Amino acid sequence: MKKIVLLLVLFTSTFSLAQENYKYAIVPKKFSFFSEENEYNTSSMTKAFFEKEGFVVYYDTDEFPSELANNRCMAFYVNVLKKSNMFITKINFELKDCANKIIYTSIQGSSKEKEYQKSYNESFRIALGAMKGQLNFANTSKTIVSEVNEKTVVTPVAIDSNNNETKQKLTAVPMQNGYKLVDSVPAVIYELLATSIENVYTAKKGTITGTFLKKNTGWYFEYYQNDQLVSEKVEVKF
């Protein structure tokens, strides 16, 4: 019973962050692993991407408008992690809120190009491209859990949704606090966030939020639709 309650609390608190309404995006003029500003045009490439996604974008060195200067929480902040070696360039984007909490992590962009200009441009393009259309920071819900009654536990009957079963096998790409499930494009189909319960994740598929969990017959994405619990089987390789 306590596990169910904990899962509900984790589910609500985690996705309330992703549902904040951000107007601005702040991009570093110089990423931490570079020696020069906008090296290999990576900052300008990143700024242009978030502008196309509908955000008002400033470099971290710019003077902010008074609206943003007085409320830094109207923006999310772009960070890039580099995990390269001598053979391959690997980067991930992290988007953080004003409290420095991660609200989104991209899939890994990588390149085997030997020339730095080409390798960084390719890896940045892959990671940015995978985020296209995925930044659904619309303020659709602001549910706050202040108290949970452990005596009240609803046990719904799940509906097997074979029509909605994922036809292709997805690949799990690790991120700091869970996984991205991507197809062969690669495009992000599911976002999973780890819980304290083994093989149970809070999950998001487009605008649908639910739970991703392992059963005897495989992995399932479960969510509510018209007050009924829907269970979709998902083929995924971890």
Structure, explained:
This protein is α+β, with helices and mostly antiparallel strands and 238 residues long. It has 2 domains: 21-130, Double Stranded RNA Binding Domain, CATH 3.30.160; 152-237, no CATH class. It is built from 4 helices and 15 strands. It has helices at residues 2-18, 42-52, 66-70, 116-130, and strands at residues 24-27, 56-59, 75-82, 89-96, 102-105, 109-111, 158-160, 170-175, 178-182, 188-194, 200-205, 208-215, 218-225, 228-234, 236-237. The strands form 2 sheets. It has a 9-stranded mixed sheet, with helices on one face. The longest helix has 17 residues, at 2-18.
Main features:
238 residues, alpha+beta, Double Stranded RNA Binding Domain, 2 domains, 9-stranded mixed β-sheet, 6-stranded mixed β-sheet, 4 helices, 20% helix, globular
Topology:
Layout: H1 2-18, E1 24-27, H2 42-52, E2 56-59, H3 66-70, E3 75-82, E4 89-96, E5 102-105, E6 109-111, H4 116-130, E7 158-160, E8 170-175, E9 178-182, E10 188-194, E11 200-205, E12 208-215, E13 218-225, E14 228-234, E15 236-237
Parallel strand pairs: 1-2, 1-3, 7-14, 8-15
Antiparallel strand pairs: 3-4, 4-5, 4-6, 8-9, 9-10, 10-11, 11-12, 12-13, 13-14
